[in-house]
Amino acid sequence: MAAITHAAFVSTKFAAARCAVEIVDAGPRGRFGGCQKFGLNSGSCAGVGGGGLRWSAAGGQFEVENGRALSCVVAASPPSNDAGSYGGEPLTRQDLVGYLASGCKPKEKWRIGTEHEKFGFQLDNLQPMTYPQIKQLLEGLADRFEWQRVMEGDNIIGLTLDGQGVSLEPGGQVELSGAPLETLHQTCAEVNSHLYQPLAFSQVKAVAEELGLGFVGIGFQPKWSVADTPIMPKGRYEIMRNYMPKVGSFGLDMMFRTCTVQVNLDFDSEADMVRKFRVGLALQPIATALFANSPFKEGKPNGFLSYRSHIWTDVDNNRAGDLPFVFEDGFGFDKYVEYALGVPMYFVYRNGRYIDCSGMSFKDFLEGKLSALPGEKPTMNDWENHLTTIFPEVRLKRYLEMRGADGGPWRRLCALPAFWTGLLYDEESLQGALDIINDWTERERAMLRSKVPKLGLNVPFRDGLLKHVAQDVFKLAKDGLTRRGLNETGFLKDIEETVRTGKTPAEHILELYHGKWGENVDPVFEKLLY
């Protein structure tokens, strides 16, 4: 029996991280080929056959026997931020790198994770849902459909069921974090089961309608001010609400008045992660344009097609943006750790409460020099939580998150994972995308990030428009889905016209506002109602 050393970063410090081990081609002397996985979560994994990797909860290490390997893998689905458990040994920087590297998995284990947010409102007056109403909604879902409650103190703040999660954003936006799934058919079935079960009712819709509540799919709240918006009883949001105005002009708008859809995707190696990260960042403005759906603010046009995207240009530039260093030679897990260590902290969670560490350094925390917790060093939960407070256009955890799209109506929810899956999960399409962006300069990428929120696909780019690049990229995505052989190309249908014409969803609803709606924003709630 040969103990895994160094690369596996074995110990109970990973116990909180909810991701499991798979070591490919493990040899009898503990040497590993392929993509190495790193051990986590005692009690969740079992050895294959009579040998294999084994988790020892008491000893805190994984071992390999006869070259056999564990069967469970890391999934492209976000961890919980509110469980509040922590434990294990203090971390080293090497452990932080190992945590990110633990996301590697072979292609047959890749999954698709989708998260989507929506604004809840009162059907009779178009006012925001209050927390007591949200509590009724969550309790109703738990009682009727057997979701498990997530509590913070005496307050229900979310639900979980079969790998899915329902959570609350700062202003009462409701988010579904989907389970990691193999195909787009499964992903869209999940979306529809959450929103539209057979007979045109969903779990959420059924309970919400009884309470006189509805949900609108849009990227920025079209009617309410920040002052109109309720504040959810979550400790981390109180810390963020106090800190945000110190570091940017749009932080509170981001917290209380934006909704997004994002896709989480896997990689099989550090090199694969780098390629996908670069494509995701460079082409994120195209996704922003294709799904642009936030042209209103407080009842009037705001001058943008994706105001949500514009807001992110001045939320907190220490933790947001398009990360030029990703395109530099030598980028990998270690470089991302270096970046993340430089992002100021928000909080540490201990004994059921959030401790305000806003502006403090995780590097100091690693050395036991955090002024809010003198002498204490971080655990894996602390690192995992810290990574959730970093907000670039593409975010690395143990998977990659594509974060550039506005929230939208249910019919478009499946198009975003289809777009990115076709591009990133097919080798030929991924290489084609790399070829397209290969000679783009940092200035050009920054220009697209800046201009797309206002101009969408009509941004001038080189000898044409961004629309023309989007058409080439769309073809790559469609061809990639075709080569997957799973009959998934139909999920791109809802953005096909946008690609062809260059006319974004935001431009369509602006036409309605200036025409049929008589410059009244209220009909958007019905137009984009779930």
Describe the structure.
With 530 residues, the chain is α+β, with helices and mostly antiparallel strands. It has a domain of 370 residues: Creatine Kinase, Chain A, domain 2 (2-Layer Sandwich). It has 18 helices and 20 strands. Strands 4, 5, 6, 7, 8, 9, 10, 17 and 18 form a 9-stranded antiparallel sheet that branches. Helix 7 packs antiparallel against helix 12, helix 7 runs parallel beside helix 14 and helix 13 packs antiparallel against helix 15. The longest helix has 21 residues. It is globular. 52% of the residues are buried.
Q: Descriptors for this entry?
A:
530 residues; alpha+beta; Creatine Kinase, Chain A, domain 2; three-stranded antiparallel beta sheet; 18 helices; 36% helix; globular; disordered N terminus
Percent strand: 15-25%
Shape: globular
Structural class: alpha+beta
- Helical proportion? 25-40%
What is the count of helical runs?
A: 18
CATH topology of the domain at 112-343 and 390-527: Creatine Kinase, Chain A, domain 2
At the first level of CATH, the class of the domain at 112-343 and 390-527 is Alpha Beta
End-to-end C-alpha gap: 56 Å
Kindly provide the radius of gyration, computed on alpha-carbon positions and rounded to a whole number of angstroms.
23 Å
CATH architecture of the domain at 112-343 and 390-527: 2-Layer Sandwich
Kindly report the average pLDDT value.
Answer: 85
Low-confidence stretches at least 5 residues in length (pLDDT < 50)?
1-87, 196-201
Number of strands: 20
The major β-sheet equals: 9 strands, antiparallel
